[in-house]
Recover the amino acids of this structure.
């Protein structure tokens, strides 16, 4: 997959397309230099062509066997590995993410893709339910009713800038949509269009190798918002997955809901991921907390949606001690290049806004070249937070605000004041957990994931994971965008009433030929 | 529960409230006479008071035991039965629904309420998932991750006019929200406000008897749209359930999505529930089909959301025979009083529109008094349907359009042209099912429930039931509003990472003290 093959075109059902003369280039955020080649911005005709192909292949794809879809996913995973260093090099050039991080992210991407292959092969994910009929029931016969999840139709995927492999063109949204049997049209992220095209080619090759119609995958380039909104507005689009800013996610959400037939938008948008440090935790392990906090905050130049942007620390000597340790660790944090100039600008503006807020003191700001982001820690108190609610808005990057609290009530007050979050974290001794039921209850209503004595970055890809949460963390708190349950976003239940056994999908047939877990007359069983 | 107790006030946390001088009265649709007493329209202060009480009781209620919630539901079920004939009489006076229908609907309401009590007692509905940690994993330790469904917060319920017991104040939306641990604020349907108040009192009494805070239930009256929209806009509202027209549901959906923090709206709106009759079915049982079709169409004066509004019948002699039989059955259908004057007006307008449509012939229209709705059957062909898309819009009431088709392609064309539906039905021989894969595939993409050789009215309350479907049948095709799975609407997953076992909810503790079905490391089990 030589970089030379990057053509700067749309990939519409495996065909290159460049009907729009308007182009843009990617920039190497590390050097500020533009990267070849120029990319053609998709136009309305190309949007329509991609969505029409997706629509035309949807019925066929939704009725393919799980084995076929598993093979598609495995071919994508293989292709990502086969692309080797050249893919990582282009990705590094476009994102400035360190090579070891990209190697790790590729491993996660490949692993989650293979995990979905295994999951759909096993088959229980369809949530098959069977209620047997009873022709003799009075006053009316009881019908035979059976249901299972089916694919929802063509999905439009907007990848994240901060995970160019794991949450982009071959990321978890595309993988779960394919697993569910949904065609995918990806809008390439304009900050890493070359990486997107290389991965797009890998997927197109995998589609071909699996003998599937080329129309189940397209990739459109574009720097403007127009391409994205045109995709969301297209009548063939059935659902949208997005990872990015609140403004971006909300704009797509609004577009989707203005449609004549609104469609679901799964937007994972933003979070400040508050961390509440109880006194016992400081007594037990202040140094560990300070070190792990700065590690979590500055990892990947702070460019994680689960980055801890707010940390509550008690007033008094114990808290002072923790803050000194945090300052010492922060001073040692290396500055870093951010994903692109836009993110760096927004970070600088956010830091400037915090520094100008009355009642906020700067604790620590490391020094570095002006084109890099420096770890910034501010300190304030609950009274200021009460007044300056903008302190509870996300600043994407290595910046966090310490909030000193006087008592448990102030912690509860903050927990109640924050908006919906992906995560919240508690640090304390086991016995302290019992002492703060109101805090825990309040946080439960605000977050998707509650962490004890850890930090929110580093999301385990497992069945129980919830990478989601109330608005504005996401636009739909019912779902997770990471882990096996993410597939539910791209499915809906379909019910068959009184269908002859032979004409039911195998998942719903009496003999249970797939040996999947089903709910039969209200009881979970793998029996036939 | 004497009717004399109907006070025409809001019921806000068990207290009567009537701060707005504006009133309205219910009308007996059978006699056209107004019914005592006048009902005070809720105002903004009352909306705020009800939602604030709901919000204040939400945390407590969401943390009550399943046993407590089950007892609440059982007390409601008991109360509905104890209210006896007086409740049914008032309901009959406000809806003109026949007494035997109301007795049956009450039984369904009580049964579904008890079913939810049993379901939450059993406990597996929380979908507990546990992934064990591994401190020794490299390169990073694996956290212990556990998740389960929790309640979403205060729910606003808009009941249906056509099910004053089963889908109204103590209907499936309220019951499932209570089961999930969500406070409920009901907007009473203005066509049966007295029934709503009587049932509201039953619920308030049940809340009190169960020792729960009064704030978990309020009932607001109102004829204008303002009360409803104010409820949807209120910051404390977490979700909305609605059953009614597309225009009404869409308006609430739009209001909810214009909020700073959008909230889910589960609107079950409308359907024409197309029925496709294949030639073999006519050969096998033409008389049965004709009789069952007219029965389904005219039951409850056609006022069901699953009413068959479009029936495809082959051209040619066989089809002619079926149509003659339908006409004969339709001629014998008694006219009936509709739920209220507004519905009757809309029905008359819909029938007039069909009759005026060029290419449509009237097959049968029974005669009756002008204040009653008469069974109306029109006939047209696919070419006309192609041109006159309004023929595919729902007319609520006993009116259906027969569409003659020439061949299988025309059936597929209609299946592809219809919007999202609650149901579609196929009548055919077993072997014919194999001959129409495209038709079945197309219908699968359009409906929530696919019925073979039956009729869509009469919804079985069971695990596998899907009373839902793509827009505009509902506003969210992920969910059903009938059956145990309806509870999912009012829940969302919450994940605990590395929490000490003692501090986890019982559902997620190692010992599995509730003996519920859980997914542990990807495997379903009831073991500890």
């Amino acid at each position: 997959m030589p970089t030379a093959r990057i053509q700067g075109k749309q990939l519409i059902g495996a065909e290159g397309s460049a009907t729009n003369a308007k182009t843009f280039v990617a920039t190497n955020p590390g050097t500020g230099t533009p990267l070849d080649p120029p990319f053609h911005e998709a136009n309305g005709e190309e949007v329509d062509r991609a969505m029409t192909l997706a629509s035309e292949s949807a019925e066929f794809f939704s009725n393919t066997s799980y084995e076929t879809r598993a093979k598609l996913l495995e071919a994508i995973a293989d292709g990502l590995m086969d692309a080797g260093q050249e893919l990582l090099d282009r990705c590094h050039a476009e994102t400035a993410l360190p090579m070891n991080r990209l190697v790790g992210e590729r491993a996660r991407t490949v692993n989650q893709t293979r995990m979905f292959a295994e999951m759909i092969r096993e088959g229980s994910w369809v949530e098959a339910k069977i209620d047997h009929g009873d022709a003799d029931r009075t006053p009316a016969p009881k019908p035979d009713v059976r249901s299972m999840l089916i694919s929802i139709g063509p999905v439009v995927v907007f990848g994240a800038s901060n995970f160019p492999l794991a949450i982009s063109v071959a990321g978890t949204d595309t993988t779960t949509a394919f697993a569910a049997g949904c065609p995918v049209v990806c809008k390439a992220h304009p900050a890493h269009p070359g990486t997107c095209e290389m991965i797009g080619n890998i997927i197109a090759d995998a589609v071909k190798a699996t003998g599937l119609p080329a129309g189940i995958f397209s990739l459109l380039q574009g720097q403007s918002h127009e391409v994205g909104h045109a995709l969301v507005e297209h009548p063939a689009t059935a659902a949208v997955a997005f990872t990015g800013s609140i403004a971006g996610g909300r704009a797509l959400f609004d577009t989707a809901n203005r449609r004549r037939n609104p469609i679901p938008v799964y937007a994972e948008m933003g979070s400040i991921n508050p961390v509440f440090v109880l006194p016992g935790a400081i007594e037990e392990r202040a140094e560990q907390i300070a070190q792990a906090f700065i590690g979590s905050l500055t990892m990947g130049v702070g460019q994680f949606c689960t980055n801890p942007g707010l940390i509550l620390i008690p007033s008094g000597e114990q808290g002072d001690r923790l803050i000194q340790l945090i300052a010492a660790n922060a001073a040692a944090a290396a500055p870093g290049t951010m994903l692109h100039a836009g993110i760096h600008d927004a970070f600088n503006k956010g830091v400037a806004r915090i520094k100008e807020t009355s009642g906020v003191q700067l604790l620590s700001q490391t020094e570095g070249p002006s084109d890099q982001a420096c770890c910034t820690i501010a300190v304030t108190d609950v009274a200021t937070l009460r007044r300056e609610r903008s302190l509870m808005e996300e600043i994407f990057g290595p910046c966090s605000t310490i909030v000193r609290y006087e008592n448990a009530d102030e912690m509860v007050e903050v927990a109640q004041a924050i908006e919906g979050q992906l995560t919240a974290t508690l640090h304390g001794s086991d016995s302290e957990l019992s002492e703060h039921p109101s805090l825990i209850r309040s946080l439960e209503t605000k977050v998707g994931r509650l962490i004890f004595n850890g930090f929110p970055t580093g999301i385990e890809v497992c069945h129980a994971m919830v990478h989601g949460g109330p608005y504005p963390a996401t636009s739909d708190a019912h779902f997770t965008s990471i882990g096996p349950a993410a597939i539910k976003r791209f499915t809906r239940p379909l019910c068959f009433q009184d269908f002859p056994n032979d004409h039911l999908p195998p998942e719903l047939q009496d003999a249970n030929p797939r040996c999947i877990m089903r709910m039969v007359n209200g009881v979970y069983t793998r029996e036939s």
User: Anything to note?
Assistant: Chain A touches chain B through 76 residues (CB under 8 Å). The radius of gyration of chain A is 25 Å.
